[in-house]
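To whoever is on call:

I kicked off a structure prediction for a single chain this morning and the downstream step that reads the tokens threw a length-mismatch warning. I double-checked the sequence; it's 178 residues and nothing unusual in it as far as I can see. Pasting both halves so you can look.
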Amino acid sequence: MKLEIGDYYLRSLEVADCGQFYAWSCDREVTLYSLSSYAYPQSKSDIEKWLSDINSGSKSVSFGICSKQSDQLIGYAGISSISQLNRSGEFFILIGDKNSWGKGIGTLVTKVVTDYAIQTLGLHRVQLTASSLNLGAVKSYEKAGYQHEGIMRESGFRDGRFVDKILMSVIASEWQGI
């Protein structure tokens, strides 16, 4: 699958992407606000196993984000914790290529993947959490149509201290589409 969006496209992740993911996982600036497994160093073999299993489950969908100009993987995004019963899931994104930061690609991909979750997967609710310190991400999610729901107080532990997470969501009946 290949979905074109402006100067970028989304595609399935592949085991061959391991080297790029490993490089991102070793760069603390890239993983600084990550609320996922990137908080801890990973081996290349762990990342390879993760990539080989990523498309086999029904509880998540993941997309590689690529630049059309360079045809290089610059990040990934998707929906995890998909519940068919509750028709809900959780959005995630990581832009690993620092040269792609601040160009609006996060907002664009957030809109496209959220639209896919609502229109294609039939989800009623898509939520996300973001570190309260990651103001750029929160602003991007607001631009993409996510609404603030609350603060999960001291629910993340980074750099020797607890940090708040901001909970945001989109409901299908309120979704404006892309």
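Update from on-call: the warning came from a stale cache, not from the record. Cleared it. Sanity check on the structure: Strands lie at 2-5, 8-11, 61-67, 73-83, 88-95, 125-131, 147-158, 161-171.
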